[in-house]
Hints:
- The chain is an alpha+beta fold.
- The protein has 2 domains: 1-40, YefM-like fold (3-Layer(aba) Sandwich), CATH 3.40.1620.10; 45-96.
- The chain is 62% helix and 18% strand.
- It has helices at 6-11, 13-23, 46-71, 79-95; strands at residues 2-5, 25-30, 33-39.
- A 3-stranded mixed beta sheet has the order 1-2-3.
- The longest helix is centred in the middle third of the chain and has 26 residues, at 46-71.
Amino acid sequence: MRFVTVRDLRGKTSELWKQLEQQRELVVTNNGKPIAILSATDEDSFEACLWALRRSRASETLDKLQREASDRGLVALTPADIEAHIQESRRARAGD
């Protein structure tokens, strides 16, 4: 996987598009830190690629939420506890 800077992206765009066709993925960096991934696609696979990306992000978010819940000791909640939290949240929202 090739890493390119934001400066390169601005100054060498046409060259990078050609590299993207060959490499299929490029990582864009800013101050040495990754900030974006450019991934080649085409008209036929665009929807599938977008769906896969969104599914991956959702999975990553779910994993993060599960870790946070575990760290806070919330994994031991019973269904009744969960329902109580839901009802409490609904009452609070209705009062806003």
